[in-house]
Each structure stands twice: as C-alpha cells, then as structure tokens.
Amino acid sequence: MKRILTKSLIAVAAAAGLCSIPTIASAHERDRVSIIVRETPREYCAPRRVWCEPVYEERCNKVWVEPVYRTECTTVFIEPVYRTVCERVWVEPVYEFRTRCVTDRCGRRIEVRERVCVREGGWTSVEKRVEVSCGRYEKVERPVLVVAGHFEERRERVCVREGRWDGVEVGYHNRGGVAVGLGFGFGR
Fold first, then answer.
1. How far apart are CA 18 and CA 31, in angstroms?
2. Are strands 150-161 and 172-174 parallel, antiparallel or unpaired?
3. Which of 10, 131, 137, 156 is the most buried (most CB within 10 A)?
C-alpha cells in the first residue's frame, strides 16, 4: 500500500513537471526533456523476534464457605436427680388391750381386759425417694452461630496462554525511498 501511494505521488509530480517545461521543449524540436524515476536499492532487514503478550481470562468460581461458630459459656442450674427405690418390708402385727363389759351368769357386769390384734402383720412394699445427685450450678459451653455457611463467588485471573517470543520477521525495506531526476538534452 505504501509503495502504491509513493509511486502515484511520483507520477503526479512527474506530470506536473512535464506541464511546466513545454516552453523549453517547443523552442527546439531536437531538444529532449526526460524525467527519471527510480527506486533506491532495497536493503535486507536483520531478523527480529516478536513478543506475543500473555492472554489472561477472568474466571468466577462458587466456593462453599463453612459456617462460623462462637463458643458461649453460660451458668445453668442442674436439678437434683432422685430415684425411687421400692423395698419389701415386714410389718409387725399390732395388738391392743381393750376393755369389754360382760355379764356373768348371775347378771353382774364385769369388765374384762383382753389383748386384741388390731392389724395383722405381713409384707408390704415401701417406696423411698433417694437422691442420686444433688442440685448444682454448672458452666455449659455451647456453640452459637455467627455466620451461616454459604456459597461465595470468587473471581480469579487465570493465564490461558503464556507470553512468548514468536517467529522471525525477515524483510526488505527501502532506505532512501524513490529518486526523481529531471534531465535536459540538446542535440543538433
């Protein structure tokens, strides 16, 4: 593209030069006007390496964040513990002396004192409430939720392709560009 633009500029300059010289050319028919356009010699460029930048990509990952707990210490009253114990016990019979009035054959009243069984003896079940442990205050540690477990989005920059030196660029370039010359020749 650069060469085409350069050559077209040269052609325009040459045409402008030709248009300005007709007075000299018309004076003598044998006189010559020539325009010389030539490129300067091309020079070889030394090879060069080209650095390709690394390519990075943003990635978003969902990560589980564990719940956070705090240990809280409180004082709690622990009720006493009782146990009911059932025992078989022998209960003795109960006797009493009682006075009773009786009439004898003659019709007289006589008081008689007798021993009487009021309640018979036997086996009975007796329930007792026995204290196993007494009531006390105790310090209890319990976990308290501070932050619930949740998913969190984490963004990270990941290298998809490493940076590297790529290929060799070899080429030619024109050092001076284009040379334009105008020549007049007079012949007889």
1. 14
2. unpaired
3. 10
pLDDT in tens, 100-121: 888 888 888 888 899 999 999 9
**Residues 126, 85 contacting (CB under 8 angstroms):** no
3-class SS letters over 55-121? EEEEEEEEEEECCEEEEEEEEEEECCEEEEEEEEEEECCEEEEEEEEEECCCCCEEEEEEEEEEECC
CB 66 within 8 A of CB 150: no
| Tokens 């020079």 -> residue | 43
Whether 115 and 96 have beta carbons less than 8 Å apart is answered as yes
62-104 pLDDT, tens per residue?
999 999 999 999 999 999 999 999 999 999 999 999 988 888 8
For the chain, the farthest-separated pair of C-alpha atoms sits apart, in whole angstroms, at: 214
pLDDT-derived band at 25, boundaries 50, 70, 90: very low
